[in-house]
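Inverse folding, one chain.
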């Protein structure tokens, strides 16, 4: 099967899910399996961009699929049209982290389509099907950052599930206090000394690395401003924030993933994407709109 036929089959293959009734114990076990299954379904769906596998697309609701990637039209038709633009066998997908927060599953992925990229994808489930999608994509840095780290490496182990809401509150407060409102006097309280692993391609580890990078940008007249936090999602020790602002004067979407340990932020990944002019959008759903 050639690439375009595989894509057509991929988009056309939609299957129904079924469910059974269980005892209370079986229901609880099944809920856990379903939650894990949603993460696997997302990983499989993303991998299907590379493999052309048909079955994973069944997780998308064919009647209602709202798209927030501004370069893709709504529905399965928009998804299929984008895949059809890829040269056959050109795409590569390596999902490194997948998390779930209620009806939302979010993934951190290394892509190669239309060039190498790092992306965060967020999918919303409803009645067992994906009905909405958001993402942020950035070209993969050609070099590692000053501390020798890539945009995608680092910790992957999910822990402290019972602290999910506590960690989400901590990270939300950090972004609001420091990045939105500039209350730099509170900065040190969110970290354990200079213990801070950084994956931004331009910034070294530690608060000292962050400070040096911000000073260097300011000296070049480059400002990074966060205006609004649109969504905070988390699972255990990992928390993702979706924010809107400006970078170097351009309307920008910021996706920041933080790892929390013992009530302090200890690791950070991000993807920064310039928001395209509205006249170029292929859907009118907006970049955010949670």
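Residues assigned per position:
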């Amino acid at each position: 099967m050639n690439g375009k036929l595989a894509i057509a089959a991929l988009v056309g293959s939609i299957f129904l899910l079924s469910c059974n009734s269980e005892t209370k114990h079986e229901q609880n076990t099944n809920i856990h399996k379903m939650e894990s299954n949603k993460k696997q379904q997302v990983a499989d769906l993303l991998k299907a961009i590379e493999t052309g596998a048909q079955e994973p697309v069944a997780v998308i609701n064919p009647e209602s699929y709202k798209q927030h990637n501004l370069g893709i039209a709504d529905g399965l038709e928009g998804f299929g049209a984008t895949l059809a633009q890829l040269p056959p066998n050109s795409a590569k997908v390596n999902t490194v982290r997948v998390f779930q927060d209620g009806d939302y599953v979010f993934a951190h992925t290394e892509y190669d389509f239309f060039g190498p990229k790092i992306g965060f994808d967020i999918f919303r489930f409803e009645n067992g099907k994906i009905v909405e999608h958001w993402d942020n994509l950035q070209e993969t840095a050609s070099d590692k950052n000053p501390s020798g780290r890539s945009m995608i490496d680092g910790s992957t182990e999910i822990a402290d599930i019972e602290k999910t809401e506590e960690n989400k509150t901590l990270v939300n407060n950090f972004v609001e206090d420091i990045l939105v409102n500039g209350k730099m006097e509170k900065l040190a309280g969110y970290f354990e000394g200079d213990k801070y692993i950084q994956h931004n391609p331009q910034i070294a580890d530690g608060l000292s690395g962050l400070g040096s990078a911000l000073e260097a940008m300011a000296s070049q007249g480059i400002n990074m401003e966060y205006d609004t936090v649109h969504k905070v999602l988390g699972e255990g020790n990992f928390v993702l924030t979706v924010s809107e602002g400006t970078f170097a004067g351009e309307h920008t979407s910021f996706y920041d993933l933080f790892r929390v340990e013992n009530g302090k932020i200890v690791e950070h990944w991000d993807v920064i994407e310039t928001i395209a002019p509205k006249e170029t959008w292929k859907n009118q759903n907006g970049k955010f709109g949670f």
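Residues 24 and 156 are 32 Å apart (CA to CA). The chain has five helices and ten strands.
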